[in-house]
Amino acid sequence: MAETHPMQAMAYANRRSANLQVQREVIFRKAAFFFLSILLFVIPWENAVVIDGFGTISRVVAIPAFGMALLAILECGTLRMLVPQQIVMLAFLIWGGFTYFWTFSPSATVTSIYTFVQLFMLVWLIWEFAQSRKQQLLLLQAYALGSIVSSGGTLLGFFNSPGLHSGRYSGLGFNPGDLAFILALALPISLYLAVQERRKILVWVDGAAAVLALSAIVLTASRVSILACIPTLFMLPFLFPKLRLSRNLLALVFIALAGCGSWLFMPESSWSRLSTIGTAIASGTLTERTTISQIGWQVFRQAPFHGVGVGAYESAVEHAVGWASAAGVADMGSQADPLVPHNTFFSILVEQGITGCGLFVALLIALVFSASKLAKIDRLFWLCILMTWAIGAFDMPWDQRKPTWFIFGLLISAAAAKPLVEARSSAMHRLRGQRPEVYAEARSSTGISLSQGSS
Q1: How far is the C-alpha of 235 from the C-alpha of 380, rounded, in Å?
Q2: pTM of the predicted structure, to 2 decimals
């Protein structure tokens, strides 16, 4: 009986070890992407489930997503290099952290810094584990499906009446304005997916998501979110020529259903509020926001370059108008709510100064540049998303909200997406430096091809 040569035994052991390592990495990467998809599914309705002392359900899902991601990175030993857009984003977040050294409200700034870290981790998860177009469409689909839950909750609030808030309807623990903006972002996403999707069942699901989102936005009576839907209307004529006749007819049916449903079921309270859009725009004031902005400008002049500290807007404005004492705040009661900045850009300008606002504007310019590099339909879609976000951001502080950084991170990944639709395996790149037979064996055992490219 012939004896096994020591070199042959070592080569076999190396191949077996490489196979196991690659298989573990593939499993961890798939698990990380799965939990990332679940995270984006729950974001539109995260306030529906809140655990005392812990947070919303999105935090529960984010923990295993990050855990699987960490295991995958430890297994392969490499990280995908950041691109300039993400470096600008990171610089903006780091500057926000620096404001702790001069903040007006240290506790609020610490909370905001912690939030920024979580948001950048979301961007990184998308960058590392959604590298192909197929994966990016799946993440968009997850968000669209989650919006159906939010829309359903709003409709239930309408039919059951407890969701009424001063003539406005909401649900699942959301403020009507925030919920409407979440759904305003879901509207173009759903329509875009309905065009891209080939499976009829998902076409119907995405169309239904668009109809429900528009109906729910109307029920919330959010004037700014209605205006934020305008870019979607401009996107529609460019989507229809890409569809077959049957798809065009189906799209028209969905649009007709959305319009009729909004018209028939819209309560008088929603009509009354939405009818004041023109007056509100002409007067430039919405529920005392002009007064609060004037006070905010006074606070900004005190620290124009470095700001009062991220997350410290409300405390600084309260102090400026003499409401710093606990007694004063208690006397105000619900009137303290309008002190929250109703503009993302103004909030950043006051909290992080000209420096932070400049970094944020640079990030937005970089995102527009990223969108401009995409194919026509994709470019149109992402510019529509950015315009929708910008309109809504002029009415609410969304610089620390997950949907904001989700669309920012996914746009950056879309601009860098690989032409082929399977995820990268960095272990394969590392194995290229080993013996050819070891690499070939590992590649064949995992089904990963060389043509996928490197990051």
Answers
A1: 7
A2: 0.82
pLDDT digits (tens, 9 = 90+) for 271-310: 666 666 666 655 555 544 666 777 888 889 888 999 999 9
Question: pLDDT tens-digit profile of 107-164?
Answer: 999 999 999 999 999 999 999 999 999 999 999 999 999 999 999 988 887 777 654 5
* In the chain, where the domains are located: 9-79+424-455, 83-129+288-421, 146-286
SS3 string of the chain?
CCCCCHHHHHHHHHHHHHHHHHHHHHHHHHHHHHHHHHHHHHHHHHHHCEECCCEEHHHHHHHHHHHHHHHHHHHHCCCCCCCHHHHHHHHHHHHHHHHHHHCCCHHHHHHHHHHHHHHHHHHHHHHHHCCEHHHHHHHHHHHHHHHHHHHHHHHHHHHHCCCEECCEECCCCCCHHHHHHHHHHHHHHHHHHHHHCCCHHHHHHHHHHHHHHHHHHHHHCCHHHHHHCHHHHHHHHHHHHHCCHHHHHHHHHHHHHHHHHHHHHCCHHHHHHHCCHHHHHHHCCCCCHHHHHHHHHHHHHHCCCCCCCCCCHHHHHHHHCCCCCHHHHHHHHHHHHHHCCCCHHHHHHHHHHHHHHHHHHHHHHHHHHHHHCCCHHHHHHHHHHHHHHHHHHCCCCCCCCHHHHHHHHHHHHHHCCECCCCCCCHHHHHHCCCCHHHHHHHHHHHCCCHHHCCC
